[in-house]
Amino acid sequence: MQPSAEVAQRLARLSAHLNPEHPQVGESSSLMRNNCRAKGGAPGFKVAILGAAGGIGQPLALLMKINPLVSVLHLYDVVNTPGVTADISHMDTGAVVRGFLGQAQLENALTGMDLVIIPAGVPRKPGMTRDDLFKINAGIVRTLCEGISKCCPHAIVNLISNPVNSTVAIAAEVFKKAGTYDPKRLLGVTTLDVVRANTFVAEVLGVDPRDVSVPVVGGHAGVTILPLLSQVKPPASFTPEEINYLTDRIQNGGTEVVEAFAASKFADACMRGLRGDAGIVECSFVASQVTELPFFATRVRLGRSGAEEIFPLGPLSEYERAGLEKAKKELAESINKGISFIRK
Ligand SMILES: NC(=O)C1=CN([C@@H]2O[C@H](COP(=O)(O)OP(=O)(O)OC[C@H]3O[C@@H](n4cnc5c(N)ncnc54)[C@H](O)[C@@H]3O)[C@@H](O)[C@H]2O)C=CC1
Ligand SMILES: O=C([O-])CC(=O)C(=O)O
């Protein structure tokens, strides 16, 4: 008797697993080379993390593997992806995990992706600013974005690598050069500023951070991070001392601790937008006409094509208006630095 189609498929998969012909570096098992599809669940999105073996990349990979919106998860790095991929791939959730190691595998990592998340590059050491990372990370982001424009030009890109205030401009220039630029699809990740703002404001108010929403606008470094405490929801008022304390703590939170939770939260919001959910609003650093600068972080509505609507700043307090001027001055320099890196 002939085995059923399903049994035949299972036997083929088992045989491929037991007899790996030419193991490829960076793939966690021969099952992954069979182009197998995630079983069960919604159709899901194909997500690549570039820099997946790093401090942000690894926990982010774990969080994406448990996200039911993800059907395929590609983990790319220049080191250590085989181990990380093996680890993540053993989790009993739906997404199929594949690992890719080194530049030669970048194109395979990117082909067919719906969402590309980029935490690749060097992080700050104590005493450094995010701008101090420009020298190394600018080139890394350029190479990765060249790959994106070639292999998945319609993917949504979540850019985490610092300095975000410059790397978003770098990515935009690379995409423009390649003729693939869609401003709605390029999003600098500033969610961590919002997550911190919600947490610190909730601490001051003595409420649950999940019930608090603080818009954070501008950019993602020092004074360019501008929490709009006058627009906190639910409405709350703060003393001048509280405003100084909160603004300073939110602007400098990155020197306390960095974390992947916010990156995962933002990626999840992008996928819910892609799926067509209504009313998905997050802060992000995007191409914008809210100010005279070409990029600016404000609340944006995420939809099927990325950042579909960019909300204005709303009424600002005097303190926030002064902060906005400082933020714009530094932001303009960071954005120009990114643009000239590619145009030079
Ligand atoms: N936007 C945001 O809210 C945040 C941004 N960051 C930034 O994210 C970046 C990564 O931070 P961590 O994960 O802590 O650093 P990390 O050093 O732990 O990890 C970075 C990873 O990138 C990889 N990498 C280096 N060059 C690469 C290349 N050419 N292609 C692919 N991967 C490459 C490294 O091998 C490493 O695994 C830093 O620039 C950091 O400042 C970090 C936290 C929050
Ligand atoms: O501060 C850093 O170096 C990393 C980062 O962007 C953050 O944690 O907000």
From TrEMBL:
It is found in: Peroxisome. Residues 190-341 form the Lactate/malate dehydrogenase C-terminal domain. GO terms for biological process: glyoxylate cycle; malate metabolic process; tricarboxylic acid cycle. The keyword GTP-binding does not apply. GO terms for cellular component: chloroplast; peroxisome. Residues 46-188 form the Lactate/malate dehydrogenase N-terminal domain. NAD(+) binds at G51, A52, A53, G54, G55, I56, G57, D77, N137, I160, S161, N162. Keywords: Glyoxylate bypass, NAD, Oxidoreductase, Peroxisome, Tricarboxylic acid cycle. It is an enzyme of class 1 (oxidoreductase). It catalyses: (S)-malate + NAD(+) = oxaloacetate + NADH + H(+). The active site is at H220 (proton acceptor). Its EC number is 1.1.1.37. CDD domains: MDH_glyoxysomal_mitochondrial (cd01337). Substrate binds at R124, R130, N162, R196. Coiled coil: none annotated. Its main location: other. Belongs to the LDH/MDH superfamily. MDH type 1 family. Homodimer. This is Malate dehydrogenase. It comes from Colocasia esculenta.
